[in-house]
Amino acid sequence: MTRRTVVVVGAGPAGLAAADTALAAGADVALLDAADRPGGQYHRMLPEAYGARAPQAIQHGHHAFTRRAHRVLDHPRCSWWAGAEVWALERPEPGTVAPPKVHVLSAAPRGPRRRHVLAPDALVLATGAHDRVLPFPGWDLPGVYTAGAAQALAKGERLAVGDRVVVAGTGPFLLPVAVSLLEAGSTVIEVVEAGERVRVARGWLDHPWELGAQAGKSGELLSLATALARRRVPYRFGRAVVAARGDGRVEEVVTAAVRTDWSVVPGTERTTAVDAVCVGHGFTPRLELAVAAGCALRPGPGGASTDVFVGVDGDQATSAPGVYACGEITGIAGAPAARTEGALAGWLAAGGAPDARSLAALRRRRDQGRAFARRLADAHPIGSGWPGWLRPDTVVCRCEETDYATVRAAAEDATAGEARVAKLATRAGLGPCQGRICGPTVAELRRLHGAPQPPGPPTAPVDPGPQHRPLAAPIRLGELARPSVEESGP
Ligand SMILES: Cc1cc2nc3c(=O)[nH]c(=O)nc-3n(C[C@H](O)[C@H](O)[C@H](O)COP(=O)(O)OP(=O)(O)OC[C@H]3O[C@@H](n4cnc5c(N)ncnc54)[C@H](O)[C@@H]3O)c2cc1C
What total number of domains does the chain contain? Predict the structure, then answer.
Protein backbone atom coordinates (compact mmCIF):
# COMPACT_ATOMS: atom_id res chain seq x y z
CA MET A 1 0.00 0.00 0.00
CA THR A 2 1.39 3.44 -0.88
CA ARG A 3 1.84 5.80 2.02
CA ARG A 4 -0.23 8.97 2.19
CA THR A 5 1.61 12.23 1.66
CA VAL A 6 0.76 15.18 3.87
CA VAL A 7 1.97 18.76 3.42
CA VAL A 8 1.84 20.91 6.56
CA VAL A 9 2.16 24.68 6.07
CA GLY A 10 3.43 26.43 9.20
CA ALA A 11 5.77 24.98 11.83
CA GLY A 12 4.38 26.84 14.85
CA PRO A 13 2.83 24.95 17.78
CA ALA A 14 -0.10 23.78 15.59
CA GLY A 15 1.88 22.75 12.49
CA LEU A 16 4.62 21.00 14.43
CA ALA A 17 2.03 18.96 16.36
CA ALA A 18 0.26 18.13 13.07
CA ALA A 19 3.51 16.91 11.50
CA ASP A 20 4.24 14.83 14.62
CA THR A 21 0.93 12.94 14.60
CA ALA A 22 0.87 12.61 10.77
CA LEU A 23 4.26 10.86 11.05
CA ALA A 24 2.94 8.71 13.91
CA ALA A 25 0.02 7.71 11.67
CA GLY A 26 2.49 6.50 9.02
CA ALA A 27 2.41 9.31 6.42
CA ASP A 28 5.25 10.92 4.49
CA VAL A 29 5.28 14.54 5.65
CA ALA A 30 6.61 17.77 4.20
CA LEU A 31 6.70 20.50 6.86
CA LEU A 32 7.09 23.99 5.38
CA ASP A 33 7.69 27.33 7.04
CA ALA A 34 8.68 30.73 5.72
CA ALA A 35 10.89 31.06 8.81
CA ASP A 36 14.31 29.42 9.10
CA ARG A 37 13.48 27.58 12.31
CA PRO A 38 10.41 25.79 13.62
CA GLY A 39 8.45 27.20 16.56
CA GLY A 40 6.24 29.88 15.00
CA GLN A 41 5.48 32.99 17.01
CA TYR A 42 5.31 31.29 20.39
CA HIS A 43 8.65 29.44 20.37
CA ARG A 44 10.66 32.18 18.73
CA MET A 45 14.29 31.34 19.55
CA LEU A 46 17.56 33.25 19.53
CA PRO A 47 19.67 32.49 16.42
CA GLU A 48 22.07 29.58 17.09
CA ALA A 49 24.98 31.79 15.98
CA TYR A 50 24.47 33.90 19.15
CA GLY A 51 25.67 30.93 21.23
CA ALA A 52 23.34 31.99 24.06
CA ARG A 53 24.05 30.34 27.42
CA ALA A 54 20.33 30.16 28.33
CA PRO A 55 18.39 30.22 25.04
CA GLN A 56 15.34 28.92 26.90
CA ALA A 57 15.04 32.10 29.03
CA ILE A 58 11.56 33.67 28.65
CA GLN A 59 10.44 30.55 26.77
CA HIS A 60 7.52 28.62 28.23
CA GLY A 61 7.46 24.88 27.46
CA HIS A 62 10.91 25.05 25.88
CA HIS A 63 11.97 21.46 26.66
CA ALA A 64 8.76 19.86 25.36
CA PHE A 65 9.07 21.99 22.23
CA THR A 66 12.69 21.04 21.48
CA ARG A 67 11.93 17.34 22.07
CA ARG A 68 9.04 17.49 19.60
CA ALA A 69 11.02 19.57 17.07
CA HIS A 70 13.86 17.00 17.07
CA ARG A 71 11.44 14.07 16.84
CA VAL A 72 9.75 15.62 13.80
CA LEU A 73 12.69 17.17 11.95
CA ASP A 74 14.95 14.13 12.41
CA HIS A 75 12.26 11.65 11.34
CA PRO A 76 13.22 9.69 8.18
CA ARG A 77 9.75 10.26 6.66
CA CYS A 78 9.76 14.03 7.29
CA SER A 79 11.21 16.56 4.89
CA TRP A 80 11.71 19.92 6.58
CA TRP A 81 11.52 22.93 4.28
CA ALA A 82 13.01 25.87 6.16
CA GLY A 83 12.64 29.35 4.64
CA ALA A 84 9.98 28.03 2.27
CA GLU A 85 7.06 30.32 1.57
CA VAL A 86 3.82 28.99 0.12
CA TRP A 87 2.86 31.72 -2.30
CA ALA A 88 -0.13 30.09 -4.04
CA LEU A 89 -2.51 27.15 -3.86
CA GLU A 90 -3.87 25.77 -7.11
CA ARG A 91 -7.35 24.33 -6.79
CA PRO A 92 -8.10 21.09 -8.68
CA GLU A 93 -10.18 21.08 -11.85
CA PRO A 94 -13.93 21.32 -11.14
CA GLY A 95 -15.31 17.85 -10.43
CA THR A 96 -11.98 16.53 -9.11
CA VAL A 97 -11.90 15.72 -5.40
CA ALA A 98 -8.34 16.47 -4.32
CA PRO A 99 -6.53 19.03 -2.20
CA PRO A 100 -4.95 21.97 -4.03
CA LYS A 101 -1.40 21.81 -5.37
CA VAL A 102 1.03 23.73 -3.16
CA HIS A 103 3.27 26.31 -4.83
CA VAL A 104 6.40 26.96 -2.80
CA LEU A 105 9.29 29.39 -3.02
CA SER A 106 12.28 27.82 -1.32
CA ALA A 107 15.25 29.75 -0.05
CA ALA A 108 18.43 29.42 -2.09
CA PRO A 109 21.81 30.31 -0.51
CA ARG A 110 22.59 32.60 -3.44
CA GLY A 111 20.46 33.92 -6.28
CA PRO A 112 16.72 33.86 -6.72
CA ARG A 113 14.45 31.59 -4.72
CA ARG A 114 13.38 28.35 -6.45
CA ARG A 115 9.80 27.43 -7.30
CA HIS A 116 8.44 23.99 -6.40
CA VAL A 117 5.02 22.40 -6.74
CA LEU A 118 3.81 19.74 -4.29
CA ALA A 119 0.74 17.58 -4.90
CA PRO A 120 -0.10 15.96 -1.53
CA ASP A 121 -2.92 13.58 -0.58
CA ALA A 122 -3.84 15.97 2.24
CA LEU A 123 -2.93 19.53 3.18
CA VAL A 124 -2.81 20.91 6.73
CA LEU A 125 -2.91 24.70 7.05
CA ALA A 126 -1.37 26.05 10.28
CA THR A 127 -0.47 29.57 9.22
CA GLY A 128 -1.22 31.31 12.54
CA ALA A 129 -2.09 34.94 13.07
CA HIS A 130 -0.52 38.36 13.13
CA ASP A 131 -1.18 41.02 15.71
CA ARG A 132 -3.87 43.63 15.27
CA VAL A 133 -3.33 47.31 16.04
CA LEU A 134 -5.93 50.06 16.05
CA PRO A 135 -4.72 53.39 14.69
CA PHE A 136 -4.43 56.58 16.75
CA PRO A 137 -2.82 59.96 16.00
CA GLY A 138 0.94 59.43 15.83
CA TRP A 139 0.87 55.63 15.56
CA ASP A 140 2.98 55.93 12.41
CA LEU A 141 5.87 57.64 14.26
CA PRO A 142 9.14 55.72 14.57
CA GLY A 143 9.25 54.21 18.05
CA VAL A 144 5.63 52.99 17.95
CA TYR A 145 5.71 49.19 17.61
CA THR A 146 3.09 46.52 17.37
CA ALA A 147 3.23 44.45 20.55
CA GLY A 148 4.05 41.40 18.39
CA ALA A 149 7.01 43.11 16.70
CA ALA A 150 8.41 44.23 20.05
CA GLN A 151 7.93 40.69 21.37
CA ALA A 152 9.62 39.17 18.32
CA LEU A 153 12.66 41.46 18.75
CA ALA A 154 12.86 40.82 22.49
CA LYS A 155 12.42 37.04 22.22
CA GLY A 156 14.19 36.40 18.91
CA GLU A 157 17.07 38.89 19.23
CA ARG A 158 17.07 40.03 22.91
CA LEU A 159 16.68 43.55 21.52
CA ALA A 160 14.86 46.15 23.60
CA VAL A 161 12.80 48.55 21.47
CA GLY A 162 13.39 51.39 23.94
CA ASP A 163 14.52 52.41 27.43
CA ARG A 164 11.20 53.84 28.65
CA VAL A 165 8.28 51.93 27.20
CA VAL A 166 4.50 51.95 27.63
CA VAL A 167 2.70 48.71 26.64
CA ALA A 168 -0.95 49.23 25.65
CA GLY A 169 -3.97 47.63 24.02
CA THR A 170 -6.07 44.73 25.19
CA GLY A 171 -5.75 41.04 25.98
CA PRO A 172 -3.45 38.76 27.95
CA PHE A 173 -0.74 39.05 25.25
CA LEU A 174 0.25 42.38 26.86
CA LEU A 175 1.66 40.36 29.79
CA PRO A 176 4.35 38.34 27.91
CA VAL A 177 5.23 41.43 25.88
CA ALA A 178 5.85 43.53 29.01
CA VAL A 179 7.85 40.73 30.66
CA SER A 180 9.99 40.15 27.54
CA LEU A 181 10.73 43.88 27.38
CA LEU A 182 11.84 43.85 31.03
CA GLU A 183 14.07 40.83 30.32
CA ALA A 184 15.56 42.64 27.32
CA GLY A 185 16.47 45.63 29.54
CA SER A 186 13.63 48.14 29.02
CA THR A 187 11.90 50.02 31.81
CA VAL A 188 8.20 49.32 31.38
CA ILE A 189 6.53 52.43 32.75
CA GLU A 190 3.04 50.95 32.73
CA VAL A 191 0.79 48.46 30.97
CA VAL A 192 -2.56 49.97 29.96
CA GLU A 193 -5.43 47.59 29.21
CA ALA A 194 -8.41 49.30 27.54
CA GLY A 195 -10.88 46.75 28.92
CA GLU A 196 -12.64 47.66 32.15
CA ARG A 197 -11.39 45.77 35.20
CA VAL A 198 -14.89 44.40 35.95
CA ARG A 199 -15.50 43.22 32.38
CA VAL A 200 -12.09 41.57 32.16
CA ALA A 201 -12.50 39.92 35.58
CA ARG A 202 -16.02 38.71 34.72
CA GLY A 203 -14.81 37.33 31.40
CA TRP A 204 -11.99 35.38 33.04
CA LEU A 205 -13.56 34.37 36.34
CA ASP A 206 -17.01 33.18 35.16
CA HIS A 207 -17.10 29.36 35.27
CA PRO A 208 -13.62 29.17 36.85
CA TRP A 209 -13.63 25.35 36.62
CA GLU A 210 -13.28 25.70 32.83
CA LEU A 211 -9.93 27.40 33.36
CA GLY A 212 -8.64 24.25 35.08
CA ALA A 213 -8.72 22.59 31.66
CA GLN A 214 -6.25 25.22 30.42
CA ALA A 215 -4.05 24.93 33.49
CA GLY A 216 -0.87 25.38 31.45
CA LYS A 217 -1.97 28.67 29.91
CA SER A 218 -3.53 29.97 33.15
CA GLY A 219 -0.36 29.10 35.08
CA GLU A 220 1.77 30.85 32.47
CA LEU A 221 -0.36 34.02 32.67
CA LEU A 222 -0.21 33.96 36.47
CA SER A 223 3.58 33.66 36.45
CA LEU A 224 3.81 36.58 34.00
CA ALA A 225 1.49 38.73 36.15
CA THR A 226 3.63 37.87 39.20
CA ALA A 227 6.79 38.87 37.32
CA LEU A 228 5.26 42.28 36.54
CA ALA A 229 4.08 42.77 40.12
CA ARG A 230 7.56 41.88 41.42
CA ARG A 231 9.09 44.55 39.20
CA ARG A 232 6.34 46.99 40.36
CA VAL A 233 5.03 47.63 36.84
CA PRO A 234 1.56 49.23 37.15
CA TYR A 235 -1.19 47.41 35.20
CA ARG A 236 -4.03 49.88 34.59
CA PHE A 237 -7.46 48.84 33.36
CA GLY A 238 -9.88 51.07 31.44
CA ARG A 239 -7.11 53.22 29.91
CA ALA A 240 -5.80 53.43 26.37
CA VAL A 241 -3.00 55.11 24.45
CA VAL A 242 -4.97 57.62 22.35
CA ALA A 243 -2.07 59.57 20.80
CA ALA A 244 1.70 59.50 20.36
CA ARG A 245 3.71 62.65 19.77
CA GLY A 246 7.27 63.56 18.94
CA ASP A 247 9.56 65.39 16.58
CA GLY A 248 10.60 62.73 14.05
CA ARG A 249 10.07 59.89 16.55
CA VAL A 250 7.91 59.17 19.55
CA GLU A 251 8.77 61.25 22.61
CA GLU A 252 5.53 61.07 24.59
CA VAL A 253 2.25 59.19 24.66
CA VAL A 254 -1.16 60.41 25.73
CA THR A 255 -3.18 57.87 27.69
CA ALA A 256 -6.78 58.45 28.74
CA ALA A 257 -9.48 56.69 30.71
CA VAL A 258 -11.95 55.04 28.33
CA ARG A 259 -15.56 53.98 28.82
CA THR A 260 -16.86 50.45 28.15
CA ASP A 261 -17.09 51.30 24.42
CA TRP A 262 -13.53 52.74 24.53
CA SER A 263 -14.66 56.35 23.98
CA VAL A 264 -12.42 58.76 25.89
CA VAL A 265 -13.59 60.16 29.23
CA PRO A 266 -12.92 63.91 28.79
CA GLY A 267 -10.39 65.45 31.14
CA THR A 268 -8.58 62.17 31.94
CA GLU A 269 -5.77 62.56 29.40
CA ARG A 270 -2.25 62.15 30.80
CA THR A 271 1.04 62.65 28.99
CA THR A 272 4.03 60.36 29.67
CA ALA A 273 7.57 60.73 28.31
CA VAL A 274 8.65 57.55 26.49
CA ASP A 275 11.05 56.50 23.75
CA ALA A 276 8.91 53.56 22.61
CA VAL A 277 5.32 52.40 22.82
CA CYS A 278 4.07 48.88 22.04
CA VAL A 279 0.43 48.41 21.12
CA GLY A 280 -1.65 45.29 20.47
CA HIS A 281 -5.42 44.86 20.18
CA GLY A 282 -5.66 41.11 19.66
CA PHE A 283 -4.82 38.97 16.62
CA THR A 284 -5.99 38.60 13.04
CA PRO A 285 -5.79 35.10 11.49
CA ARG A 286 -3.65 34.68 8.37
CA LEU A 287 -6.36 33.48 6.03
CA GLU A 288 -4.75 34.02 2.62
CA LEU A 289 -4.01 30.34 1.95
CA ALA A 290 -7.31 29.11 3.40
CA VAL A 291 -9.17 31.53 1.12
CA ALA A 292 -7.02 30.44 -1.82
CA ALA A 293 -7.91 26.79 -1.05
CA GLY A 294 -11.62 27.70 -1.09
CA CYS A 295 -12.25 26.97 2.62
CA ALA A 296 -15.50 28.33 4.07
CA LEU A 297 -14.97 30.88 6.82
CA ARG A 298 -16.99 31.38 10.00
CA PRO A 299 -17.60 34.33 12.35
CA GLY A 300 -15.39 34.56 15.44
CA PRO A 301 -16.75 34.14 18.97
CA GLY A 302 -16.64 37.94 19.52
CA GLY A 303 -19.37 38.39 16.90
CA ALA A 304 -17.70 41.41 15.24
CA SER A 305 -18.44 41.43 11.53
CA THR A 306 -14.75 41.74 10.65
CA ASP A 307 -13.77 38.84 12.89
CA VAL A 308 -13.66 35.65 10.76
CA PHE A 309 -11.78 32.36 10.99
CA VAL A 310 -11.49 29.14 8.99
CA GLY A 311 -14.50 26.90 9.64
CA VAL A 312 -13.62 23.31 10.60
CA ASP A 313 -15.67 20.26 11.58
CA GLY A 314 -15.04 18.03 14.59
CA ASP A 315 -12.08 16.45 12.74
CA GLN A 316 -10.43 19.83 11.88
CA ALA A 317 -11.44 19.27 8.24
CA THR A 318 -12.34 22.41 6.27
CA SER A 319 -15.01 22.58 3.58
CA ALA A 320 -12.29 22.12 0.90
CA PRO A 321 -11.64 18.43 0.11
CA GLY A 322 -8.44 17.13 1.72
CA VAL A 323 -7.68 20.42 3.48
CA TYR A 324 -7.40 20.56 7.29
CA ALA A 325 -6.85 23.68 9.44
CA CYS A 326 -5.55 24.13 12.97
CA GLY A 327 -4.18 26.72 15.38
CA GLU A 328 -4.88 30.43 15.37
CA ILE A 329 -6.46 30.42 11.89
CA THR A 330 -9.44 28.58 13.39
CA GLY A 331 -9.67 30.73 16.56
CA ILE A 332 -7.43 32.65 18.95
CA ALA A 333 -6.88 30.46 22.00
CA GLY A 334 -3.11 30.34 22.61
CA ALA A 335 -0.37 27.81 21.98
CA PRO A 336 -1.71 24.81 23.99
CA ALA A 337 -5.02 24.89 22.08
CA ALA A 338 -3.11 25.27 18.78
CA ARG A 339 -1.04 22.18 19.63
CA THR A 340 -4.13 20.11 20.39
CA GLU A 341 -5.87 21.08 17.15
CA GLY A 342 -2.67 20.38 15.23
CA ALA A 343 -2.36 16.90 16.76
CA LEU A 344 -5.93 16.06 15.67
CA ALA A 345 -5.55 17.56 12.19
CA GLY A 346 -2.26 15.78 11.46
CA TRP A 347 -3.48 12.36 12.57
CA LEU A 348 -6.72 12.53 10.56
CA ALA A 349 -5.10 14.12 7.49
CA ALA A 350 -2.67 11.18 7.44
CA GLY A 351 -5.56 8.70 7.42
CA GLY A 352 -5.04 7.70 11.08
CA ALA A 353 -7.86 5.65 12.60
CA PRO A 354 -10.67 8.07 13.52
CA ASP A 355 -11.56 5.97 16.57
CA ALA A 356 -8.05 5.74 18.06
CA ARG A 357 -8.36 5.91 21.86
CA SER A 358 -6.17 8.98 22.25
CA LEU A 359 -8.47 10.95 19.92
CA ALA A 360 -11.24 11.19 22.50
CA ALA A 361 -8.92 13.02 24.90
CA LEU A 362 -7.64 15.26 22.09
CA ARG A 363 -11.18 16.14 21.03
CA ARG A 364 -12.10 16.98 24.63
CA ARG A 365 -9.03 19.24 24.98
CA ARG A 366 -9.79 20.84 21.60
CA ASP A 367 -13.32 21.69 22.79
CA GLN A 368 -11.88 23.13 25.99
CA GLY A 369 -9.56 25.23 23.82
CA ARG A 370 -12.56 26.55 21.89
CA ALA A 371 -14.25 27.46 25.21
CA PHE A 372 -11.04 29.31 26.12
CA ALA A 373 -11.22 31.24 22.80
CA ARG A 374 -14.80 32.32 23.61
CA ARG A 375 -13.71 33.41 27.09
CA LEU A 376 -10.83 35.44 25.63
CA ALA A 377 -13.16 37.16 23.16
CA ASP A 378 -15.70 37.88 25.95
CA ALA A 379 -13.12 39.28 28.34
CA HIS A 380 -11.33 41.47 25.79
CA PRO A 381 -13.79 42.77 23.15
CA ILE A 382 -12.75 45.76 21.04
CA GLY A 383 -14.95 48.75 21.99
CA SER A 384 -16.78 50.46 19.14
CA GLY A 385 -15.80 53.97 20.32
CA TRP A 386 -12.12 53.82 19.29
CA PRO A 387 -12.65 55.88 16.06
CA GLY A 388 -13.22 58.82 18.46
CA TRP A 389 -9.41 58.76 19.02
CA LEU A 390 -8.80 59.55 15.34
CA ARG A 391 -8.28 62.95 13.70
CA PRO A 392 -9.16 63.53 10.02
CA ASP A 393 -5.45 63.38 9.10
CA THR A 394 -4.69 60.22 11.12
CA VAL A 395 -3.15 57.67 8.76
CA VAL A 396 -5.24 54.49 8.61
CA CYS A 397 -3.43 52.57 5.83
CA ARG A 398 0.27 53.04 6.46
CA CYS A 399 1.43 51.51 3.16
CA GLU A 400 -0.60 53.91 1.02
CA GLU A 401 -0.81 56.74 3.62
CA THR A 402 -4.59 56.86 3.33
CA ASP A 403 -6.04 58.98 6.13
CA TYR A 404 -9.21 58.65 8.18
CA ALA A 405 -10.98 61.52 6.36
CA THR A 406 -10.55 59.71 3.01
CA VAL A 407 -11.80 56.35 4.32
CA ARG A 408 -14.74 58.05 6.04
CA ALA A 409 -15.71 60.07 2.96
CA ALA A 410 -15.71 56.92 0.81
CA ALA A 411 -17.83 55.07 3.41
CA GLU A 412 -20.36 57.92 3.58
CA ASP A 413 -20.53 58.41 -0.20
CA ALA A 414 -23.63 56.52 -1.32
CA THR A 415 -22.29 56.42 -4.89
CA ALA A 416 -18.90 54.90 -3.91
CA GLY A 417 -20.38 51.39 -3.90
CA GLU A 418 -18.98 48.21 -2.44
CA ALA A 419 -15.73 47.70 -0.57
CA ARG A 420 -13.68 46.73 -3.66
CA VAL A 421 -14.59 49.94 -5.48
CA ALA A 422 -13.86 52.04 -2.37
CA LYS A 423 -10.51 50.23 -2.05
CA LEU A 424 -9.51 51.30 -5.54
CA ALA A 425 -10.68 54.86 -4.85
CA THR A 426 -8.96 55.29 -1.45
CA ARG A 427 -6.03 52.89 -2.13
CA ALA A 428 -6.36 51.63 1.48
CA GLY A 429 -5.20 47.98 1.46
CA LEU A 430 -3.47 48.11 -1.92
CA GLY A 431 0.10 48.52 -0.60
CA PRO A 432 2.77 45.92 0.11
CA CYS A 433 0.99 44.44 3.15
CA GLN A 434 -2.16 43.96 1.03
CA GLY A 435 -4.47 45.03 3.87
CA ARG A 436 -3.04 42.63 6.46
CA ILE A 437 -2.62 45.49 8.94
CA CYS A 438 -5.33 47.97 7.94
CA GLY A 439 -7.92 45.53 6.48
CA PRO A 440 -10.01 44.91 9.65
CA THR A 441 -9.70 48.60 10.64
CA VAL A 442 -10.93 49.86 7.26
CA ALA A 443 -13.78 47.32 7.26
CA GLU A 444 -14.84 48.43 10.75
CA LEU A 445 -14.65 52.15 9.86
CA ARG A 446 -16.73 51.53 6.74
CA ARG A 447 -19.35 49.71 8.78
CA LEU A 448 -19.45 52.43 11.46
CA HIS A 449 -19.81 55.16 8.81
CA GLY A 450 -22.70 53.52 7.04
CA ALA A 451 -21.09 51.92 3.98
CA PRO A 452 -23.19 49.15 2.39
CA GLN A 453 -22.36 45.86 4.10
CA PRO A 454 -22.29 42.35 2.67
CA PRO A 455 -25.11 40.25 4.16
CA GLY A 456 -23.35 38.87 7.26
CA PRO A 457 -19.67 37.94 7.60
CA PRO A 458 -17.94 36.50 4.51
CA THR A 459 -18.45 32.90 5.52
CA ALA A 460 -18.91 31.28 2.10
CA PRO A 461 -15.94 29.77 0.28
CA VAL A 462 -14.40 32.41 -1.92
CA ASP A 463 -15.21 31.84 -5.56
CA PRO A 464 -12.05 31.60 -7.68
CA GLY A 465 -13.50 34.23 -10.02
CA PRO A 466 -12.10 37.64 -10.85
CA GLN A 467 -11.99 38.70 -7.18
CA HIS A 468 -9.78 35.78 -6.22
CA ARG A 469 -6.22 36.94 -5.60
CA PRO A 470 -4.04 34.04 -6.71
CA LEU A 471 -0.90 35.24 -4.89
CA ALA A 472 -0.77 34.68 -1.14
CA ALA A 473 2.70 36.23 -0.83
CA PRO A 474 4.82 38.64 -2.87
CA ILE A 475 6.89 36.99 -5.63
CA ARG A 476 9.42 38.57 -7.99
CA LEU A 477 8.74 38.49 -11.72
CA GLY A 478 12.12 36.80 -12.25
CA GLU A 479 11.12 34.01 -9.87
CA LEU A 480 7.77 33.65 -11.59
CA ALA A 481 9.43 33.40 -15.01
CA ARG A 482 11.68 30.48 -14.01
CA PRO A 483 10.22 26.98 -14.47
CA SER A 484 9.04 25.29 -11.30
CA VAL A 485 10.18 21.88 -10.05
CA GLU A 486 7.32 19.36 -9.75
CA GLU A 487 8.03 17.30 -6.62
CA SER A 488 6.85 13.70 -6.79
CA GLY A 489 5.98 13.64 -3.08
CA PRO A 490 7.00 15.14 0.25
C1 LIG B 1 4.20 38.41 16.62
C2 LIG B 1 3.52 37.46 17.58
C3 LIG B 1 4.16 37.08 18.77
C4 LIG B 1 3.53 36.21 19.66
N5 LIG B 1 4.16 35.89 20.84
C6 LIG B 1 3.47 35.15 21.77
C7 LIG B 1 4.05 34.90 23.06
O8 LIG B 1 5.16 35.31 23.35
N9 LIG B 1 3.31 34.21 23.96
C10 LIG B 1 2.04 33.75 23.66
O11 LIG B 1 1.38 33.15 24.51
N12 LIG B 1 1.50 33.94 22.44
C13 LIG B 1 2.16 34.65 21.51
N14 LIG B 1 1.59 34.89 20.30
C15 LIG B 1 0.32 34.23 19.99
C16 LIG B 1 0.77 32.94 19.27
O17 LIG B 1 0.78 33.21 17.88
C18 LIG B 1 -0.03 31.68 19.46
O19 LIG B 1 -0.42 31.42 20.74
C20 LIG B 1 0.65 30.43 18.85
O21 LIG B 1 1.97 30.64 18.42
C22 LIG B 1 -0.21 30.01 17.69
O23 LIG B 1 0.33 28.89 17.07
P24 LIG B 1 0.07 28.59 15.53
O25 LIG B 1 0.84 27.36 15.25
O26 LIG B 1 -1.39 28.60 15.26
O27 LIG B 1 0.66 29.83 14.72
P28 LIG B 1 2.12 30.48 14.66
O29 LIG B 1 2.90 30.23 15.87
O30 LIG B 1 1.87 31.90 14.26
O31 LIG B 1 2.81 29.71 13.44
C32 LIG B 1 2.41 29.91 12.11
C33 LIG B 1 3.61 29.63 11.21
O34 LIG B 1 3.13 29.60 9.86
C35 LIG B 1 4.13 30.16 9.04
N36 LIG B 1 3.49 30.62 7.81
C37 LIG B 1 2.42 31.46 7.68
N38 LIG B 1 2.10 31.63 6.38
C39 LIG B 1 3.00 30.91 5.67
C40 LIG B 1 3.19 30.70 4.28
N41 LIG B 1 2.42 31.27 3.35
N42 LIG B 1 4.22 29.90 3.88
C43 LIG B 1 5.03 29.30 4.79
N44 LIG B 1 4.88 29.48 6.14
C45 LIG B 1 3.89 30.27 6.57
C46 LIG B 1 4.71 31.30 9.88
O47 LIG B 1 6.03 31.63 9.44
C48 LIG B 1 4.67 30.70 11.28
O49 LIG B 1 5.90 30.14 11.66
C50 LIG B 1 2.23 35.72 19.37
C51 LIG B 1 1.62 36.08 18.15
C52 LIG B 1 2.25 36.94 17.26
C53 LIG B 1 1.54 37.32 15.98
Answer: 3
